[in-house]
Structure formats: C-alpha cells, structure tokens
Amino acid sequence: MVCIRFNGISLAAVLKTDWRLWESGQGQKQGDQEARVPQHPVVTGGGGLHLSGSCGGGKKCIQHVYGAQHPPFDPLLHGTLLRSTAKMPTTPVKAKRVSTFQEFESNTSDAWDAGEDDDELLAMAAESLNSEVVMETANRVLRNHSQRQGRPTLQEGPGLQQKPRPEAELPSPPSGDLRLVKSVSESHTSCPAESASDAAPLQRSQSLPHSATVTLGGTSDPSTLSSSALSEREASRLDKFKQLLAGPNTDLEELRRLSWSGIPKPVRPMTWKLLSGYLPANVDRRPATLQRKQKEYFAFIEHYYDSRNDEVHQDTYRQIHIDIPRMSPEALILQPKVTEIFERILFIWAIRHPASGYVQGINDLVTPFFVVFICEYIEAEEVDTVDVSGVPAEVLRNIEADTYWCMSKLLDGIQDNYTFAQPGIQMKVKMLEELVSRIDEQVHRHLDQHEVRYLQFAFRWMNNLLMREVPLRCTIRLWDTYQSEPDGFSHFHLYVCAAFLVRWRKEILEEKDFQELLLFLQNLPTAHWDDEDISLLLAEAYRLKFAFADAPNHYKK
To answer: DSSP 3-state assignment of 61?
Structure first.
C-alpha cells in the first residue's frame, strides 16, 4: 500500500488531470464541472492527494483529499511521463465566456467524460503512470519542503523523528483556514496501516500556524506560550504607566487612553486617585495635597461623628449600620476594622451632603476604592479575601481618608441618582428601555409581552453601578474604564447596561414566564466572569455609544 500526501502539493496532474481542462475551464462553471464528476478528487488548493492500494474487490482507489493544488510542471523531470502518455495539443484553448454547459462540453476535450466508466479511467491512469517518476517527484518535493521547514526528511533516521500527537490534540488553525483541519483529519483516516515513523514528517509538513507546528514537535505548550506573551504585554503596559506617572506633570489624557483597556494592579491606586481628580497631575504637589486632604477628613470625623447618636442623625446612622453587613464580599465586610471604617465614611458623607443624605446603594460604592487602596500594602491573590488585620493603623487611617475623597468625587457626578425620588435613576432606566428597543427589538418586545418592566431589574443596575451583578474583581476592571471615560459613571454606564442586557439575549428569549424572567434578570450567572468578559462587554458598550451618544434621537421613538 502506498500513501502520499504533502502540504501544498498534489499528484492530481500527474495521475489523471487533463491540463487543457484546467487551463480553459478553471473558474468557469465550476459548479457544473463538480456536478459531472462527484466521484473524483476535487482540486481546490492547500492540501494533498491520497492513493491507497485497494477499495475492495481488488480495485485501485484514489480517495478525496480536499485542498490540493497542481504541482509546478517541470519538463525535464516529467519528460519520461510525456513520452509515455498520449500526445495532447500544445495550443491552449482560447479562454472565452461560456454561457451554457453544452457549449463548455463541446469546446473542451475532457478526460472526465461522463460516458466513461470509472474503472476504465483508473486503468488509463495506471497505464500512463511511470512509478519511478512519481516516486522521484514525491521524494524531491518532500525533501525540499522539509529542508525549508528545518525538519528531518523521510530519508533521515528514525531517531530524529518525533511521534505525532493524536488528532484530537491538534490545535485548531485560524477560522479563516478551516480547510487545513479537514486535510489533516482525512489524511489520518485514509492511511490507517501507515506506521508512526512514516507519518511524522509528513504530518509536520501540513500548513499549520507556527505556534501549532511547535506544539506538534512536542517542544512547547500553547498555554505556556500564550501566558508568556501575555506576561510580556502586561510588563510592557506597566512600564508605560510607570513612565507616565513618574513624569513631573502627568498627561491625564494619555493616562485615560492607557487606562481604558485596564490598569495594572501595581499602579492602579495612584492612577485612580489621579483620574478621579483627588490628586493633582503635578508630582511635586501630590504629597502636600494628600496631607491636607487626610487632615481635613479627620477633622470632619472629630467634628461630626459623635453626633451619630443624636436624634436628628440616629436614623441615618442606624440605616448605615444595618446595610453594611449586607454588602459583599462578606470576608471583607465582616472584619470589625472594615465595618468601622465604612460606617465613618458613609456617615460623614451623608452629613456633608444633606440634599441626598444616605441612600441604600451608596454603601456599595465604598468597597472598590477601599480594596484597591488596601491592596497597595498587602499581597492578595483575590480581592474578595483581603485581610486588613496586618495593616498598620496609620496606613488604614490614610486609606480611609483616600477612600472617602475618591467616593465623594464619584458621587458628585451622579448625585441626582440619590436625591428625593431618585430622578437620575428613573431617567436612566427610561433611556435604557428606549435604547434596547432600538438595538434589539425582539428582546424588548419579549420583555413587554411578559409584562417585565425595566425598572424591576435595571433600577439596581443604576443604583449600584452593576456591583451586585458582577464579582468585585470585575467591578474594579469596569471602573478602570469608567474613570477613563468622560462622564463614565453617569453616561457611559447606560451603554454598558444595554450591552449587559443584550448579552443574555438567548437566555431571555428562552424564558416564557414572568416569574422566571424576573428571577433570571435579578440573578444573572456571572460568578465566573473575569477581565476578558468585562472587556468584551465594554467593547460592545463603546460600539453602542459611538452609534447613539451623539445622535440621541436615534433611540427615541
């Protein structure tokens, strides 16, 4: 049994291809041509041809291998073959536009005439074939290809060959070149009796991506390569942030541009303080500003915090005291030091902002700032398991002050969300409904048919800035972009919520009941989300903003 296949080379022309057919008819009525010869190899581009000893009953068989190409024609090499085959006219048929299949058939002397029997064609191919020429051609092509790829040829010793990985472990090529997958799989099934040592060099000659080729050789792991490349990219981004922050005057526009796609953990605390407007861009002014702001905050505590038990403020303090244990993550909130810090921050903010006072939902906005700033002083793999017991008291005091001021800057931009009747949230939910009705009318109509109102699930999305919908690690990544966007918390958040709702389109349309729909929308399965999921969500939100932000009438009925 003989099995020959190699990348980019086919012996179809040598075996039984009429060159005149391909010179005159390729690209013309290809569908008709395939309809006439469904049982013969199709030469398409990029794979190989498989010859096997028999197909049963003692007959020779030439099996399909999709993705083959014509080999380059060498008159010197194929001289013997030309002498042994029937003479063909050397003048090519003049290419012209063929209007019907009958005209094409009458103008082409085809070796694949429909009236000829398959066995007769195989016999003709066998009679015209010079086996020495075939083997010489195959060996030459394989040898040259292997040398270009820097891999051993068939003639090299078995000690240099590597056992190929099973087909199931072959890495998938890019989606634009799906032919390669079919060529590799068919080449495995078409030669079951072939030994592993013979298959290895041939298999490695397939047109796989470079990283996949390395994997086949057994010299590397794709996950290792990807993680290494990712680490290099993260290191490069970190260097850019450090260089930008180390300058005498930080370019805030450039900092926003870098921060949009995520901020590296080591520089996130300083970057957030700059983007929120808490610290100035000038490096020399930052220490004095920090000292002044921290001193001012503790003056507020000394002046106001003792009034928490007064009759006029005790309701506010009691509500804060009730809400904090309901926050997440529990591992952080249940630490007594953290509870005391959050109570002071929220009470002082409520006293100093009487127009809104304390409203449920504001308490959640403290957590991301506190966790980001505390992680500057401790090593925590997961932000949900931060332990502050080992942090010095003076450091905790400074982090408390920084958290208060950064949260205040955030709330200054969305304070109408928390004034009487929360008009800001009411307006944003209405805008979300109109936007979704434009970008996905089917989802909007499905919710309306089952009497699910946007206010029933989207109110919390606006009130808590999606903090109750995604894990804390995802919220921090989300806020990297919010602080990079102009009016990110007040304006861009609307488009994030729209993209977030449409993200669950399939699941929403599958629910046919009001109760099930509402339960799903209030308990979305995001527990295992990571930065990649948030990045995709933000990309879709940016697309929606680009389409609708400067044309608000587009999402108004």
So the answer is: strand
